[in-house]
Amino acid sequence: MSPSGRSQPLSLMFLLGMGMASERISCPSRCSCQYLEVNCTGQQLQEFPVAIPLDTRQLILAANNVSYLPAVELSFLADLVYLDCRKNLLGGDLDFTFIGVAKLVYLDLSFNNLTQVTFSTFSHLLSLVVLKISDNPNLVAIEKDAFANNTWLRHLDVSRTGLTFLDTSTVQDLPNLRFLGLSDNLWHCNCSFLDFITWMTESNVHFPDADNITCYTPEGLHALKMPAVEAQLHFNCLTQLYKKDYIFLCLVGFCIFFAGTVAAWLAGICAVIYEVHTSKGEEEEDT
């Protein structure tokens, strides 16, 4: 073999070795890197790792102490499709955090300290298919239009949070939703929640762990399963009047009676005045 022939394989091996070396160099500290994947699971990280390869597709930050996701650093990972941040300390305001990762398909924010979800939290994730925000005990509010832009969402888990209410339109308007986790929440099964429970019985969505989807309040419905409680709510909300309803009806009746009495009194006075003026006119004509 000629010297030039032997040099080609050597040069290819050299370039390959340099590429592998550069990949290892760009891998964040205490993380492991494979092709298009960065895994930093359980490394006690306090902050979002630096030097993540820009072509990363899968980023795993599970089981750390990260309390903040920097929107700018995330936006550099424009090809990211999978982000696992479960079991961290993320909380507070996540609005506009994911503005630069529009290709994201899978997002796991379970076991964190989230407090609310607004329209601006996930509105830029137009390709999102799986969203896990379960096991956030401080999550007490999800805005009505929180997932309005996530029309591809298929899997949504909000189990084991502090939620007491979820507007029906929040999930009803998701055309591709097939899996919805609702178990072990503090659901307040009052008349305002009846529409949501009715939607549960009529939808084609699968509700895992259905035995633990129960009412927390009011006391009379505590621990009753949803949506089996629908019949009881229909009875309570549509056929019975509460004490405040009776008070309202009594006030309306009293107002109608009082108005009628006043009207009759005024009509009587007007009739008397008319009679007096009429009789005076007749007397003046006689004289």
Describe this structure in words.
Its main location: membrane. The chain crosses the membrane at residues 246-274. It is a single-pass membrane protein. This is LRC52 protein. Keywords: Cell membrane, Disulfide bond, Ion channel, Ion transport, Leucine-rich repeat, Membrane, Repeat, Signal, Transmembrane, Transmembrane helix, Transport. By secondary structure, this protein is of the alpha/beta class. It has a domain at 32-186: Leucine-rich repeat, LRR (right-handed beta-alpha superhelix) (Alpha-Beta Horseshoe), CATH 3.80.10. It has 7 helices and 12 strands. The protein has an 8-stranded mixed β-sheet, with no helix packed on it. Strand 3 (58-60), helix 2 (71-75) and strand 4 form a beta-alpha-beta unit. The longest helix is centred in the C-terminal third of the chain and has 44 residues, at 243-286. The radius of gyration is 34 Å and the shape is elongated. The model is unreliable at 9-24 (pLDDT under 50).
Per-chain topology:
Layout: H1 3-25, E1 32-34, E2 37-39, E3 58-60, H2 71-75, E4 82-84, E5 91-92, E6 106-108, E7 113-114, E8 116-117, H3 119-122, E9 130-132, E10 141-142, E11 155-157, H4 168-172, E12 179-181, H5 194-202, H6 230-239, H7 243-286
Parallel strand pairs: 2-3, 3-4, 4-6, 5-7, 6-9, 8-10, 9-11, 11-12
Antiparallel strand pairs: 1-2
